[in-house]
Amino acid sequence: MENVLRSTRVTLEMIKWEHSIFALPFALTGAVLAAGGWPPVRVLLWIVVCMVSARSAAMAFNRLVDSEIDAANPRTAMRALPKGELSRGFVLSFTVLAAGVFVFGAAMLNRLTLELSPIALLVVLAYSYMKRITRWSHVVLGLALGIAPAAAWIAVRGSLDPRALLLTGIVILWVGGFDVLYACQDFEHDRKVGLNSIPQAFGLSGAFWIARVMHLGMAALLFVLLHAFGLGLIALVGVAIVLVLLAYEHSIISPHDLRRMNAAFFTLNGVISVVFFVGVAADVLHRR
Q: What is the dihedral angle through the alpha carbons of 212, 214, 216, 218, rounded to the nearest 10 degrees?
């Protein structure tokens, strides 16, 4: 039992489960917009369960699939699987358990969420293989997180409004853009071993420009979202803060200086998602 608890703790550290905060606020935004206010507490709780379990399954599976790649990369060689701190069997079992929790959570929401749960799992797990296939794997990662707000809308209403797909597009461009920047750290390694990425294909300067275009596209969709849902000043202020933070994120890193990548990637992106949710939720609740 002690070994199981230790392995579970190491696995949670490995997958950085606390970083579920990246996509969770966007999922909660989808739920609030769908309900026109706060959804029932029961629905919110199961949305959180589904979000955390799906991401946990995806991240554990990614570490499992990439264990040999991680071992060959100096930046990732100290992760738990390459170091031998975890067995492949345990990580696989954790992945299956997390996936099972996700499907159970989907079943507790409504029939459509249950029926779509295998497709959602396929998307989030398939990302792990994309860097072997296409340089645009960053967009697939964006999709894996971007389905969360649309799924939350379905969880609340039992159907999908096309407007919810605006949130999906926003997350795809947001996550895809910052994942392009994050992948710049592995530029030399990816070229050496033949892994696909935008930095590997277009170089560091090209990757930064592509990330900027993605985030400009995200900004445009944010304003379309405000109009589509008739949101007002409070949400507009939230969006303005998001855009300032996004600009600051781009200002503290460059193709020639990646030293502050963790601050840009982890800290600022977590703040961005929370600020966006708070702005939209406050606006919706204010108008009730």
A: -140
Cα–Cα distance, 168 to 146 (Å, whole number) = 4
Which H helix or E strand runs over 156? helix 137-157
Confidence of residue 88 (pLDDT cuts 50, 70, 90): confident
| End-to-end Cα distance, the chain | 50
**Side-chain half-sphere of 67: how many Cα atoms within 13 Å?**
17
Comparing CA positions, the residue from 172, 166, 165, 122 lying closest to residue 145 is: 172
Coil, helix or strand at residue 219: helix
Cα dihedral value 124, 128, 131, 135, nearest 10 = 10
pTM above 0.85, yes or no: yes
Distance CA 52, CA 18 (A): 9
CA separation for the pair 234, 223 (Å, rounded): 13
Q: Cα separations (Å) of 161 from 151, 156, 157, 226?
A: 11, 11, 9, 15
String of DSSP letters for 254-277: BTTB-TTHHIIIIIIHHHHHHHHH
Contact at 8 Å (CB) between 26 and 148?
yes
Domains, the chain? 2-286 (1.10.357.140)
What was the pLDDT predicted at 108?
A: 96
**Count of other CB atoms within 10 angstroms of residue 73:** 20
Distance CA 225, CA 228 (A): 5
Ramachandran angles phi, psi of 218, nearest 5° = -60, -45
* pLDDT bucket at 223, cuts 50 / 70 / 90: very high
Distance CA 38, CA 144 (A): 25
The answer to whether the beta carbons of residues 57 and 118 sit under 8 Å apart is no
